């Protein structure tokens, strides 16, 4: 089972360069519980970047750069399929 509605969609975030950025997302309820991943501008986020942490539904960027700015989507996935959240914009000043 994978419902359609996200319990919490990420919201737009505005930060200054060098500040931490956090986006929160709670995926739809599902069975099995969906795993969470994030996409930036349509591309899967690379969490090998040591600045980026994905924990639970939270996306944390410890030290933002201008290049982190863009449109982020939270993806909830289980064996039934995947659902994408509404788009949240990260603005880096």
From TrEMBL:
<keyword id="KW-0732">Signal</keyword>
<dbReference type="InterPro" id="IPR007110">
    <property type="entry name" value="Ig-like_dom"/>
</dbReference>
<dbReference type="InterPro" id="IPR051170">
    <property type="entry name" value="Neural/epithelial_adhesion"/>
</dbReference>
<feature type="region of interest" description="Disordered">
    <location>
        <begin position="23"/>
        <end position="44"/>
    </location>
</feature>
<feature type="domain" description="Ig-like">
    <location>
        <begin position="4"/>
        <end position="91"/>
    </location>
</feature>
<keyword id="KW-1015">Disulfide bond</keyword>
<dbReference type="InterPro" id="IPR013098">
    <property type="entry name" value="Ig_I-set"/>
</dbReference>
<dbReference type="InterPro" id="IPR013783">
    <property type="entry name" value="Ig-like_fold"/>
</dbReference>
<dbReference type="Pfam" id="PF07679">
    <property type="entry name" value="I-set"/>
</dbReference>
<dbReference type="InterPro" id="IPR003598">
    <property type="entry name" value="Ig_sub2"/>
</dbReference>
<keyword id="KW-0677">Repeat</keyword>
<dbReference type="InterPro" id="IPR036179">
    <property type="entry name" value="Ig-like_dom_sf"/>
</dbReference>
<dbReference type="InterPro" id="IPR003599">
    <property type="entry name" value="Ig_sub"/>
</dbReference>
<keyword id="KW-0393">Immunoglobulin domain</keyword>
<protein>
    <submittedName>
        <fullName>ROBO1 protein</fullName>
    </submittedName>
</protein>
